[in-house]
Amino acid sequence: MTLYRSEQRRLVEMMYGAAAPDYSLLLESFGNFLEKEILPSARKVDEERTFPQENLSKVFAQGLTAMAFPSQYGGLGLPFPIYVAAMEMLGGCCGSTAISAAIHGTTCGGIEKFGSEKQKEEYLAPMLAGSKLGAFTLTEPHSGSDAGALETRAEKDGDYFVLNGSKIFISNGGKADVYFVFAKSADGPCAFIIDKGVSGLRFGKNMPKLGLRGSTLTEVFFEDCRIPASGLVGQEGQGFEYAKQMLHGGRITIGALSVGIAQMALEKSVQYSRSRVTFGSPLSQKQMIREKLADMSASISAARGLTYHAAWLRQMGLDYSREAAEAKLFASETAVMVCDQAIQIHGGYGYTDDLDIHRHWRDARLMTIGEGTSEVMKLVISSRLFQAASYPTA
Predict the structure, then answer these.
(1) Residue 14 Ramachandran class (φ > 0 left, ψ -120 to 50 alpha, else beta)
(2) Which pLDDT belongs to residue 142?
(3) In the chain, N or C: fewer CB atoms in 10 Å?
(4) Which domains does the chain have, with CATH numbers?
């Protein structure tokens, strides 16, 4: 199995021309590393619901998160689409590791974009090196996709802020060292960087879930959580705007993970259809099976194209909010469809644990919900359409 695929290589060549061979060599090396070090443990991580700390340490040591960040903070200075290609491969190998790394990357992105130089020195550099793990702490019991309806409060008290409230469905919760937290002050939504050990910060139990079982999903409680004013990110009242911009980038990453999950399910289906004989011939010779595989492949290619296009727009500094939503919507829905068809192709074996097929469907199902549901993505896309230049009318 070659994790760095020809489809990815062609997109990299199209985007980067003469520089493409160097990027492809890097990605091929990273794919070989994933195949050797991460892929073999994926099923065990899922079955035993083990937080993939060892896997994360390995991928961080390979420079995964550092890829698209400036060298002054310990980054590798690579284009964002190269990071997206790496995340696609990781998503196909181990969804639990990938989602934890993706959330960590979103947190790093928020610090790099909105944090002060002091915050970048204190937090970003060690996070890019992998010595500290990050968590994006936004969702609340009464405000999921409605990110503007924050109930967690931050009250100014001299040179400190005091936070009270709770969060829910926080990936890396309890495991992360750094929490990028959103709360509402008298001036509006704010963002804060909070260390794990601060007084008044408490974590609920890890919530059992359908897929991505190795990643944590917890409640986070703030009970008179007193943090220095230096923990404020950017300006008071700008937190909602910061959250939106961080989510735009995170949606591209979710698109990449979705593509990777779907690709792995497709490849397992192709292999199985070649070896499984029914009514005297392999499944691969059955017209209905070939039609399913063709639809799966075409949809994955379209999803990959949307995802890399959004990543390229982000790299170029252009508005990519609609394209990120389109990539996330199409790629996540495609992943669910492809993985569902993969179970169907495998028949009874697909429904059992034996061939490790339904793990991909279970992992894919979260992608249509996290970082904004598919329904919210449609609202984002349609709102951007109405904000665009006027269309001719009859």
Answers:
(1) alpha
(2) 87
(3) C
(4) 6-132 (1.10.540.10), 135-237 (2.40.110.10), 240-387 (1.20.140.10)
